[in-house]
Amino acid sequence: MVDRRHFIKKAAGSLAAIGGLSLWQRSGLAVATAATESTELEALPGKDALLKKTYRPPNYETPVNYFDDLFTPNNRFFVRYHHSLIPEVNAKDWRLRIGGDAARTPLEFSLEQLRKDFKTVEIAALCLCSGNRRGLFQPNVPGIQWGSGAMGNARWRGVRLKDVLAGAGIDKSALEVTLDGADAGVLKTTPDFVKSLPLAKALDENTLIAFEMNGEPLPHWNGFPARLIIPGWTATYWIKHLTAVNVISRPYDGFWMKTAYRIPKDRFASGQFSSQETETAMPITEMVINSLITNLTEGQTLPADKPIEIRGVAWDGGHGIAQVDVSTDGGASWHQAALKQDYGRFSWRQWQHVFEPKRPGAYRIMVRATSHSGASQPLEPIPNPSGYHHNAVQKMTLRLA
Amino acid sequence: MRTLLVLLSFFAATATAGENQIVLKNRPGKDQVVAQCAMCHSLDYITLHATVLDRAGWEKTVGKMIAVMGAPINDADKQVIIDYLAQNYGK
Question: What is the ipTM of this complex?
């Protein structure tokens, strides 16, 4: 918190504006989503029109048909913020500060130093909001009513957090690593969006401070100039506009760890976070096994006399996708889909299945992914108070005429 | 600096064309809702939850905005806001 305020003071000169004040566009289009109501397509500066959930803080999801691309283009990548004050960070003035009571030597890095002093690596990874598909829970659960588009797959390029932390002298007492970004609430009293990671996850070789996405600098709305990448874990930990990383010896007790982004314990198969667990609840961690059809829409009409290709993506929290099965008869029989190229266990995996309809009529399509850990999707979503981890088997009706 | 940020945020609020097109129902309590809620977030947070929150849900949400998010809303306004949201945007 202190670090963030300090940063904002320091960066005052570079606070050109709060994210793109004058450039808002409005397309005026409206499309129906799988959720309860129609959602407007609106473009943030530098972005294509996306499905607007809220203006301020900006929350925009990607239309599902864009997921037909292996990597989600930067200008079509979803946007999710908790705070309304989002400084446009000047890369030259940006500094990353490393500290905390379990770091012996506080450090400060410019973007140039990060690029120069550490080995650069690239990882393909899915960035997925914990609440993706929350709008599909019945009964509805409070929170942004996301459809299926609060996610995107990208190639992230940056440096390993463990390399950056190495020079700080991590003390034996280190327990967690906190992450803070430059965005802030309007009121001083609003809890700053700070997350923590177990030390081992922070030091995992796949945990990156990324400054490039799909070969280009991060877009402003996706965390320019640098953000955390924690492959396999939900996006709540992928702090944007990263400014401070602190190595600490006690469980971080801020609102966004202690109260928010929590799930009932033992309801999902996911990674542990023992220092943040109570008897009944734990922080959300790894993504769960899931899949999505990307080339067809609910209720679509297609000719019955041609083979029909069903395409989509499947993902999990890092075990990798072993198998995707498709049913065209409402789950009575299942057929193994063909998996396309593997881009690593943190990327989503594209799949494809072609079926030849025997006669016209309504066809109930279902898709179910299985991971290398053996986990598979449930038929119905698993209820939880905040509407996280919606990974029910997708069901879609096609009309063949 | 904080003052500057707050000013900027209001500027942002008035500068977003789309946000200005959100019109809440013109009923008693609307002024308090707009004044208090739009300080920190756009009013589509309210319309987004019309199919989600009943009166008890709105009470809990407004309570959270005050107790957790630090919204400076006094008890009288709190009740006006809850009544307005429950009556006009309750499921």
Answer: 0.88
